[in-house]
Amino acid sequence: MNVAQLLERSALYHADRTALVAADRRWTYRELDAAVSALAGGLAGLGLHPGERLGLHLPNWPEFALAYYAAQKCGLVPLSLNVTYKAEEIEYIVTGCRRYATCSTPRTSPRCAGPRGAPWTSTARRRRPSSIRRPPPGGPRG
How far is CA 90 from CA 50, 59, 120, 138, in A? Predict the structure, then answer.
């Protein structure tokens, strides 16, 4: 049983209890599980497969928890990338990974260059994960 399955179980037995609080926003277990399931569906739609890595280059925001649970729900391996890491440090970490994608925000994405310095673009608004991006062909396959 992984943490996403524990979340599903909590949504079943404690649906209306508060699961996550951030500033003025609250999620019940039901709401959190629904949001995580929607994000997991998006990850699956990108062609990510169980066992692949999902780099989470996100600040300490609720979206980090959503992305972490969604990765677990898809069978992906969440890879926490500290937002203070420089591009070279992130590249060093992900170079040894099997196929991977990265989830970041506009604030953190400039530090999250693709393999061999190839830039990735960001399309999201402030405080939302900007995009889930695969490295370009020929990137690390570890």
Answer: 22, 15, 13, 17
Number of domains the chain contains:
1
Is 38 domain-assigned? yes
Round to whole Å and give the CA distance between 112 and 48.
Answer: 19
The domain that holds 73 is classified in CATH as: 3.40.50.980
In a domain, 141, yes or no: no
Between strands 100-104 and 77-80, the pairing is unpaired
The type of residue at 37 is: S
Residue 139 lies in a domain: no
Which stretch of DSSP H or E encloses residue 20?
strand 18-22
Range of 15's domain?
A: 3-133
Query: Who wins on pLDDT, 128 or 46?
Result: 46
Strand intervals (E) in 23-75 = 25-28, 53-57
Question: Which tops the pLDDT comparison, 66 or 121?
Answer: 66
Rg (CA), the chain: 15
Q: pLDDT tens digits, residue range 51-105?
A: 988 889 888 889 899 999 999 999 999 999 888 888 888 888 877 776 678 887 7
